Amino acid sequence: MDSLESLKLKFKKGNAIVQIILINVSIFILLSITGVLLFLFNEGALQNSFLKHLMLPASFSNFLFQPWSIFSYMFLHEGFLHILFNMLWLYWLGDIFQQYLGNSKTYQAYFLGGIFGGFIYIIAYNLFPAFANEVSLSYALGASAGVLSIVVATATLLPDYQVHLLILGPVRLKYIAIVSVFLDLISIPGGNAGGHIAHLGGAAFGYLFVKLLYSQSNIPAILDRLFNSIGKLFEPKTKIKIHHKATIIRPASGNKPSQQEIDLILDKISKKGYESLNKQEKEILFKASKD
To answer: Of 110-114, 258-262, 266-270, which has the strongest mean pLDDT?
Structure first.
């Protein structure tokens, strides 16, 4: 019951991970119920035709006729276990990522990771001879590329952060990410090659995404403005203006950042975004991620 209440509270506060999970689950339930009804009326072929236009085709020519599929494929799942494990991965590690970098960066890592993984899937199927006989018939679906982007991004941000796994006990995030990527890599010849390739594309994006945050590139700021602009389209209009009091974060004595400093920085990120941090605050957050 506590977990359910926690999810409700996070959704009301606009938690990106909870909202992404809710969207995926809602679409899965809707399509599942629709599929049952169409089957009962002997119209199963109609469901398959509809889904085919939402899945991501490996063929470049097919993709040109349904470019929206680079986005829509991320919300389709083959069955209950498929969506269950994806959403569990997303909740366990995505919640950590969201707490450190806020909603905007979480949306970026998930959606752009899924899109990047989708393009890597298309390129690979048209590049490697092993897929020459499959390219015109292959389609990808699932949120796994976006989920792996979040997993690897979290591990890149906090490599030594420990999570407790059943049987194994405390395990550092960097080892979880390395094992996940390795398993996808060696699984390519064993079946569902397209899915594993898309996963690897998402994982690569997650790694590069976090590295860009600590570089001198202006790409993170551009992405923030883009996603904030998109987010404003869905915000309810209000005439009430809310002004946040500026918070001055002073360095603690010694090299290790205090928990109070970290909490103040995280609070600032949640209100104004990562790009609102000054150089000193970013250094404090980076130093905390290494402890």
So the answer is: 110-114
